[in-house]
Amino acid sequence: MADEEVGTSRTREMVRPTEEDPYVWVAEKAKMRSLITNEYEPKFTIVEDRIGDQPENWAAYTLKKNQRVYSKIGDDRFAMYEFVFEKLGFRMTFSEFAMGIFDHLRLAPSQLNPNFLVFIRAYELVCEHLEVVPSVSLFFTIFQLQRKAKDGRQCWVSLKSKIKLFDMFVDSVRGFKPKYYLVRAVSEEAKESLFRTVVVEVDGEQVSRHEPKFPLAWTFDHFLRGTDFYLTRAKDLSEQDRAGLKKLVDYVGSFKAGPCVYRESVDGRRVTRPLLDKEGKQVFEARYINTRELLSAKNAAVRKILLDQMANQGSEILRMLTDQKKRKKMSKKGVGSARSSAAGGNSSGSPRVDSPTVAVSSAHQQKRLRPSPDFVDLELKTMVPQCWEMRGFLEKYTLEVVEKEKRMIREMTPARREEFLVSDIAGLMRLVSTALVLNEDSAGPGTEVTKLQAHVNQLKTRNLVLDNKVADLEGKRDVWIQTQKELRETDERLRKAVEENDRLKAAMAPGEKEDDFTRGASTRVELVKKVELVLGQLTEAAKMGFDNAVAQLEVLNPRLRTTADEEDADGMEQGNPDAEEPKIDEVEGQGESG
């Protein structure tokens, strides 16, 4: 049984790397050779998403015989498990957040248990949906690290929820260990994405150099510190991370509780039944983010709908009864014993010598080490043994009836047993007939596959056309929105111009007593000129009338002088200052007497 380390506790002395064997600290179960070769089928090698004729940036390659998942292979490549790309939907290039996690832990991506990578991916998607900045510190406030060592040697690092927000992808990911290949950066752009520029001091001078953003091969550095070193306490979070944590907790807190169910076998069939409490009432439990459904979503639109509706789904929560748990544990122990005996107790992938005279060839050993079927299914579906892939499976792993089934068969009456046998034989005959009919060329699965492939191609073409139409409509929508905006602005300017025009017209409207002389002035300048002209004419007329009146006065009274004449006279009569001016009444009297 592997020793587990959680937090900073250590139960065994840790094995450290040496000059002779830098990977002596790696557990034996992590040293198995990859099953994926050029001849191995089927294999999933899509490590990046490309559309159309986009250039290739990343590619998958098989490893050499002496290379393992932990090996340092090159500066632009690293080993990775097929499961991560096939089942979890990871694609290169890794996000900056994911690379930040690897760098923070000082671990290569393949040093992380696949369930660890599940949480990285799910956390990023939920943060994107809730508009929360995904930070490393917030991530390690929600999760804590788990290490499992075997005889002081290390293998994969996994996660455990500290704040329960996410469901597990699967309880235990099996079968991933021997299926890995090399992921290599092909283009210069891809190679640059693996490195960053740092400034270091060399001999007192600042020198810049490139270094990987995360370890490309397995490293022991991570295990030099306890797991608590990599975690973040809630009180140490920034204000932004505190707000993000509250959003995540509130989001999951809004989920409806789900009804608990369990499954049992009834007459050979799996039946789902509600889980009831002691009072006979339905048991409900809190629900969390369904990572399995989230990572199965094919695109962003489906993910958005799923996350929007997840709070109100109220889906069933499958639980296992106590006796079922015991049977599962016993089954696991039996399978483990069978595997260890079948594998000969050696998982390193190198030839093993059992005695001085008998050597096991690598080919024979690889055949012996070929893994038995791994049933990774939380819903406890009954899986058919892999008899096509593993010929001789039933000969190697003999069938056995469990004790409970034996008792049921023995307790049946002959009539009841005959009834079951007749029904089962009839069903078997129907199955044989169906298989024979479907195997014909006219109705065979090959024909159906061809039709479905043609239909898929049609749907892809239609989807591409619709995508183009959507892009075109989005462009037209943007143009329409801009045109509407400009039209509203133009309408506003036109309205103001009309109001100004009406105001000016009202200001220029003729009055009731206005004559043709002023009505002809269309501008303020013309009106001012006409006013100046009228004022000039009035001034000339007034002056002329005044001059005529003065002239008449002078004719009637020659002694009467104007102010101008008096000024002239003052200059001439300075020698007689005592002379008095005639009074007005005297002058008027003289005029009357004359």
From TrEMBL:
Report domain Transposase (putative) gypsy type positions. Answer: 87-146
Q: Which residues form a coiled coil?
A: 456-507
Give me the stretches of Low complexity compositional bias.
333-350
Q: Where on the tree of life does the source sit, at the highest rank?
A: Eukaryota
Q: Which UniProt keywords apply?
A: Coiled coil
This protein's record includes keyword Coiled coil? yes
Positions of the UniProt region annotated as Disordered: 323-366, 560-594
Name the PANTHER family for this protein: MYOSIN HEAVY CHAIN-LIKE PROTEIN, OS06G0165300 PROTEIN
Protein name, please?
A: Transposase (putative) gypsy type domain-containing protein
The top of its lineage is: Eukaryota, Viridiplantae, Streptophyta, Embryophyta, Tracheophyta
